[in-house]
Amino acid sequence: MASEQQLEALAVDIARQAGVLARRRRSEGVSIAATKSSIADIVTDADREVEALIRSRLHAERPGDGFLGEESDAAQGTTGITWVVDPIDGTVNYAYGIPAYGVSIAVVRGEARPGEWEGLAGAVFSPATGEMFHAARGAGAWMDGTRLSVNEEPSPAGALLATGFGYDPATHAGDLARVARVMPMARDLRRIGAASLDLAYVAAGRFDGYFERGLQPWDHAAGALLVEEAGGRFARAYMEDNPGRPLFVAAGPAIFDSLFAAALGP
Ligand code: IPD
């Protein structure tokens, strides 16, 4: 059995190679391959190609492990370990030429269902900046050679928060109401369009907290481990109006409870 740190090293290596490919394809021009749940939820040829690269490297190096990725069919493994992969998180940014997108690779143990697995290691790579965020359970979160830690206290001016909105226009009114509830504790709010980077930035202390409804497993699997290993908290709440679209919150311990309560609402 590989150690968490060996799995982390593999995630880092593959995420970097995948990110280099994504960046090259972006510079060559991007074509829109299909639409997913809505017109805004696009998938590019590059998404598919990058996931295929990640999958084939994992298959070569860890043939017995399972796979859960955004762009291809899931596969159950025989080792109890599953790789949870978003080849290009922030696809809309990527398609529009906005450099806020990431490659997110996590490796988890247990049922391949969020909330039931234990994150072992993960990497979030930002191809446009070259920043590699990575973590292994019990060994901390790192950006390249620097150990990460969440902010202990937000500035007296308030918390710098981040959020995202799902691609389904029907959910936007609820998302905006959530923003209105949270704003009294914020100095400002960012919406950068890549959940894996939002979570990595909470781990790095660039954001004090982050909240969003409706993330998919591959959006948060690596980022949640980064936050926890950086001393922060990450949790989800299943809400009555749509239990299939949980709320996710990540923050340092000082503001986590108040952010969670405000985001959840009455
Ligand atoms: C999306 C991004 C976005 C978030 C959406 C995600 P994708 O991932 O992370 O920031 O608001 O909920 O689906 O589709 O670009 O990989």
Large-scale geometry: globular
What structural class do you assign from the helix and strand content?
alpha+beta
Low-confidence stretches: none
From N to C, what is the helix and strand string?
HEEHEEHEEEEEEHEHEHEEH
The helicity comes to 25-40%
Number of strands: 14
Keywords summarizing the entry:
single chain, 266 residues, alpha+beta, 7-stranded mixed β-sheet, 5-stranded mixed β-sheet, 7 helices, 35% helix, 28% strand, globular, binds D-MYO-inositol-1-phosphate
Explain this structure.
- With 266 residues, this protein is α+β, with helices and mostly antiparallel strands.
- Helices cover 35% and strands 28% of the residues.
- It contains 7 helices and 14 strands.
- A hairpin with a 6-residue loop joins strand 5 and strand 6.
- Helix 5 packs parallel to helix 6.
- It is globular, with a radius of gyration of 17 Å.
- It starts with a helix and ends with a helix.
- The mean pLDDT is 94.
- The structure holds D-MYO-inositol-1-phosphate.
- The site of D-MYO-inositol-1-phosphate has 16 residues, from strand 4.
